[in-house]
């Protein structure tokens, strides 16, 4: 293999990775997971998403600081291994890979279901295959084409969310025609602001963590980002503001406009319900298209993230070297194809699992995001001691308090989730983690380059 093919090229800019993080986080968790979160917590889901947003802020600030201090880092493992050691870095790499592979597998089927809304005569597997081939092709072309595609996909769904927010505020505050301003009575009626108590709030945190998951993909883009020491902190700041805005405001509008106990159990998304209240013709088709774009965008980011994890593992000799091969366009072709293969296998399994597939995967993926954030936060806490003598262009304010708050909050959420989540979801997730640990014990004597 030629040496010049061993390095990824730095072609991604701040706007690319900002939109990629938004593309990963604003997807099925927002459009499909919103009903489940509201059903668990009622109007107090707003507090759950606020807490999740604050934790995310603290974790991502730590990630940005470590990225600035370690300019040679390519992915999470490079940031974590020098601080915490080989096993946490190995574990983080593989649970992150598992997260995206499972996510794109599930979402390829979900995307097919939304396409079938317009093409009912075509079977799910053909539509799922078509979506999978499209996402694979986008990733194989070049990093720049992938980044531009993801940028515009994310921009489209963000624009629609902004329209949703404006329309919702008008319904809440303005009386027009036969419509009377709804106001905010629904926030406290129907059982109060905490209709299911603290248990409901804790249970909803798993959906919240899953929904915000994907933002940390910024940590995978380090090897392909121009001037990461400047771009990453900027992207973290802008991404967090937008994510909290695009989650908190839509949820505030939904639980204010619609009684929380009427959101779940209906076939359409809460977003479609609000658009119908505005009286927009073809609201179901508009939102169906938006959700489809959101899912394709999330799959796009997922295939990128999982393939880059596999690529760096191959470069370091942890998996066969063939996955380190780069095409003339500096794209890890075989790593992408391997992740695509896993996606196709996941499609088959998801079809057999039926309608419960998304719920089970969302629970397992929520656990994974939680552990990823915990490892990043712990690594940041210890990184200051390891690199105390080095100055940095970006440092987290109020360190170590913000990092400790993130660690303690995530630990408390983990304990709460264990007691409020299906034993099947917890058991499957634990089995996957034990398998990853077992592979480390059996093969963990690799020398890292």
TrEMBL record:
It comes from the Bacteria. One of its GO terms (cellular component) is plasma membrane. It is found in: Cell membrane. Keywords: Amino-acid transport, Membrane, Transmembrane, Transmembrane helix, Transport. Residues 16-428 form the Amino acid permease/ SLC12A domain. It is a multi-pass membrane protein. The chain crosses the membrane at residues 46-68, 100-119, 125-147, 154-177, 197-219, 240-260, 286-311, 331-354, 360-378, 398-417, 423-442. GO terms for biological process: amino acid transport; transmembrane transport. The keyword Cytoplasm does not apply. This is Amino acid permease. The gene is gabP_1.
